[in-house]
Amino acid sequence: MSGDTEADLDGPVVVIAREGGDFVTFIDPAPAKDSARKLFSDKNTAWGEALSMCRQHRCGLRDEADPRSGNRNAAK
User: Fold this and answer.
1) Any idea where the domains of the chain sit in the sequence?
2) Who contacts 16 (Cβ-Cβ below 8 Å, separation ≥6)?
3) Model's pTM, two decimal places?
4) What does the mean pLDDT of the chain come to?
5) Closest-CA residue to 9 (of 70, 72, 76)
């Protein structure tokens, strides 16, 4: 993967998004064995969990909590 566009991402991505006043992390599309959404009160903690999930599942990251950030390949 050479760029940062959604077209460059093969398969699922970890998403960090706003949900009310909190932040949520999840994999989209969710794998059958790990469909849990994890809720956090602050973005720093959610961001750390999202990066950990990216490494564990070897997939990219989509930050919907800040639409200016776009997609990133955090699996490497």
Assistant:
1) 10-68
2) 23, 24, 25, 43, 46, 47, 50, 61, 62, 63, 64, 65
3) 0.72
4) 79
5) 72
